[in-house]
Amino acid sequence: KVSTNANLRNAATDTLRALLLCLKERADEATLDEHVKNMTGSVLENIRTSSSAQMGGLVALRLLAQIFPLTLRDAEYSAICTAALDLSSSKNVLVRGEAFELVAEMAGLDPQQFAETYLARWTTMLIDLITRREKERGMAIQALRHTIDALGEHFSPSAGPVTLTLRQLLVAKGSGSLTLRRGSITEEDQIV
């Protein structure tokens, strides 16, 4: 059974998506770019200044990235990636899950930029979740899969440590123990 809050979030997300699609169809390109940049700036400011705005802000940024990928990539790519990465360690599991989705979305907008600038931090965070937080392991592995899908060949700098971590997880799971040894990653496996 879906909660009332989840129904409300889904309805608000669907409504925002419909409004953004309407704006996309009716506005000329220059006006559209200006609107998207203004919305993005406002959402980022709200995320920074109000913890209650984080969930809605992340949803809005993800929708903007899906509907206006080129404008968003050019407008505030770094600020959005940084905000999403910062919120991916939120204590609120809903905010954290939405941040995970936005990180993968942003990785797909500019795979090379993401790989060069954010991949090491993101992969380290996911490996930490996989090795230390059993409750969040599934969410971290799913985020990892979305990131690999988004980055393709650009994920290769992190492939070694991720492969080792997943191999340890499978071996530990097969032996009935889910304790992973974070310290067993060798220097050559480290994320560059």
Describe the model.
The protein contains 9 helices and no strands. The protein has about 190 residues and is mainly α. The longest helix has 23 residues, at about 5-25. The model is unreliable at about 175-190 (pLDDT under 50).
In short:
This protein is mainly α. The protein has nine helices and no strands. It is 78% helix and 0% strand.
What would you call the structural class? Answer: mainly alpha
The Rg value, from CA coordinates, equals 18 Å
Helix % is: over 70%
If you average the pLDDT, what whole number results? 84
Label the overall shape.
Answer: globular
Residue stretches low in confidence (pLDDT < 50, at least 5 long) are 177-192
User: Secondary-structure element order, as H and E?
Assistant: HHHHHHHHH
What is the distance, rounded to the nearest whole angstrom, between the alpha carbons of the first and last residues?
Answer: 44 Å
Discrete helix count: 9
Number of strands: 0
Content of β-strand: under 5%
Largest sheet descriptor: none
What's the helix and strand layout?
Elements: H1 4-26, H2 29-49, H3 54-67, H4 69-87, H5 93-109, H6 111-117, H7 119-132, H8 137-151, H9 156-174
Name the descriptors:
single chain; 192 residues; mainly alpha; 9 helices; 78% helix; 0% strand
